[in-house]
Model the fold of this input.
Amino acid sequence: MSTYDAVRELPLRIDSYALEPLEKEVARDFKLRRTVVVLRGGGAEGRGEDIDYNPDAQLAFQRDGGKLPLAGEHTIDSFSLLHAGQEPYRRWAFESAALDLALQQAGTTLGEVVGREPRPVRFVVSTRVANVAGWSELYPKLRVKLDADKDWTGELIASLPADRIDTVDFKGVYRGEFGVPPDAALYARVAEAFPNAWLEDPYLTRDTLSALDRDRITWDAAIHSWDDVTALPFKPRTLNSKPSRFGSVRRLFDFYDRCADEGIALYGGGQYELGVGRDQIQRLASLFHPDAPNDVAPASYNDPKPRAGLPESPLSLQFNAGFS
Done:
């Protein structure tokens, strides 16, 4: 039985739904907005988070909430078909909420349904270079993910704890404001300075590929389904899995199965979730790739300045009925 087959026929009753706004100021003059989809039925509530980065799109979604004809009796599979045309982030919000509600109505957990035992989640903290020393002072065993920068000097690179840098993200696959042009010299410096780190999302050219250790190249932004894996220039040893990019539960679970069949390891990634979305990606990591450099740290690690008293890796999770 496939992983999706284990959940596809779960019955789902929806009486109504609502949208709840979330927001957080993450930089000066920039407020991050998110929307929580709340599906209600049979005295329970299932939740999912839309992580679209466009604040205007979030406000428009919130203003137009409550109008979809979702009430009725469904299964996970039939409910998914109602959202086939939606943008992936929004579709994931509805489908993760539906999975949460269906599991609660069945009185069970995702692990029990798919036959997987949850395990403590090893996580890394994705942070700015300027904060590495502060986080390391508070948490000496903390492992880190960094975004490479063309302004990194040899002195700065040498100051970083090379043995605790698990992933360096080149952001070469992104387009627009998040994208970074290829830089073979930077790639070579990073690959040499952090010999055990995964090298994520390089922009591959003849020069950049020769600057990197091919066995350590991993991908993130390009991966939305198994088809994207087959389109890569070569088979990777590991991949970053961000559930909200997949849109549907089926697409995500089929991806898990195919990667397992092909011997491709996974680690989880987050998208600055402000609410239940972070809980859900931690739970997926606990079931499918717990012992990996998962970029799913508790949300407080996204605070602008390092602070004490936060949960440390590995993260033990409490699983109740539902998905969050």
In short: Residues 125-302 form a domain with the TIM Barrel fold (CATH 3.20.20.120). The longest helix spans residues 88-106.
